[in-house]
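Exercise 7. Predict the joint structure of the components listed below.
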Amino acid sequence: MTSNSPSEKRLEELREQAWKEGVVPGKGVDVAGGPIPRKPGYYGQPVVKPPVWTWQIPLYFFVGGLGGMSAVIASAAILFHQVDLARAAMWLAAVSGAVLSPVLLIMDLGRPKLFLNMLRVFKHRSAMSMGAWILSLFGACAVPGLIALELHSHHVFAGTLGQLIRIAAGLFIFGSAIFGTLLATYTGVLIGATVIPAWFLHRTLLPIHFGTAGLGSAAGLLELLGHRTAALNFLGCYAAGVELALLIWLSFDKHGAANRAIHEHRSGWLIRIGEVLNGPLAIVFRFFGLVPFAAISFLIGALVSRFGWIVVGKVSGSDPEAVFASQNGRVESAR
Amino acid sequence: MIGEGIQSTNQRKHSYVKDRVEVGFFTDPSVCIGCKACEVACKEWNQVPDDGFTWSGNSYDNTGHLGASTWRHVMFLEQDRQKGNQVTGPMGLPNPKSEIRNPQSDDPFRWVFLSDVCKHCEEAGCLEACPTGSIVRTEVGSVLVQNDVCNGCGYCVVSCPFGVIDRRPEPLHDAGGAFKCTFCYDRQKSGLVPACAKVCPTESIVFGRLDDLRARGAQRVQQLQESGYSDAQLYDPTETSVRGIHAFFLILGEPEAYGLPPKPQIPTIYLKSAWTSAFATAIASIIATLVAFAFFS
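Solution:
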């Protein structure tokens, strides 16, 4: 029989809580692995699988974006007869886009020896297949483009052959610029068109972020390499401005439990820190003329936010409630 | 059906592959006894490596979830709800605040077992995502991973709306590739029934022609509802972009409790908006660069 003493009331409360929630957290009591966990879904098991990708993929997003957009800067530099800048940009494009990127991607494969199977089929409905082709075509343009540009700028060949090499350099570099813009932006499609709630809910934002971060990174790295031109400063300002807008967009575009990996968890802080370094901080540095600081801030921000998005994907994919919420489902429990 | 002996579709030889007939699994938890013979048969026939012996503490389920080395998974749900017209014995003590008014005579509880498996979607996310063409559709409508082609890129893992396929980690046999239920395609080619259905002692897992199974499923739901299982329903998301599944389920209650997504979508439906954004960004970047060099040189 229940008595009305405070101690008995406390026991009643505990019983009530245990009945309702299946577990009673108390001071000094470790209830991890308690007997009746009531977790959302089937014992809190993930409904979709979180990504298996490791550090190589976010690093590839960074160097691929940087390399791809370097080719765009190289093309513009050639159009406006800035050959030194074009050479530096093409070196960046070839090294990071055509060498480092494939190496990182192959390292991440479960079976690296079978990497050539990526080019076995062409599937426009698979962003991964499109990415493999974009990267291959980018490499096939950037490397010959760089070689032709170097041959041309060192006047290795004279006469008709020299002219042909000049034309080839132009064609290859413009080709690499086209595939470069796609290389920098398709990665947003790659993770946007998946079943991970925090990713597909931001499928419009992601390509803008990845592409613009690539452009700003390319401009920033070229500035750090000694090309302090007004054009690159403008591009740095443009990229930081867009990133600031994206930071504001991300802060308003909330979807409750469905994308709480961005707003509630530590994983979201990586994105937030990255965006602050990319956007507001880079703008402030540029406003005060501290170009190297702005460039470093942007580069670090671009790298950190890429890692942030992958970590967010892992958190969001492991969260059954996020999947249910993104499909307007109820939160039922297996027990 | 039980009682048909070797004439049951779970036992008799067939020529579905040769005749290109769409086949499926119908899994019915109302007759499942939770024996896990399907899990054992699957592991043995397909030589799937063990992926650890751990105690989960989640009822009798120590398998956890479907994955690269778990192609059948028997779920154990323990819910404080009534199962059909079943009346369970007194379990609790009187509690005026509890939802249960008279626990001495009415303390509903049910233990539900359901054998989960790859759904073999009509529109399969993994198949669309695969960049190597390793994942294919077979003559019987199932989705098959060709192990010797898969290079382990991991894109199918984040493209499956049901969280079925996964990349097998080191140091397991054949690590690095993506694996999931093969629908025992090798057995089916020889006219045999998939291993899990063959061993199921209560025919909770039924293998057969998809159209037959759909009719049978609808009939079973009606039968159960008439016997008091008011929350019996079929789980076959035909109205979403997945457009139906070849391995469908009867469930008691809501799909969320089984870890099944209520409205699964194939991620290719997001491609249009994502690519539009990508092309717009590409064009904006080119324009910004040209503006930069034209006006700030």
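Discussion. Residues 271-295 of chain B form the longest helix (25 residues).
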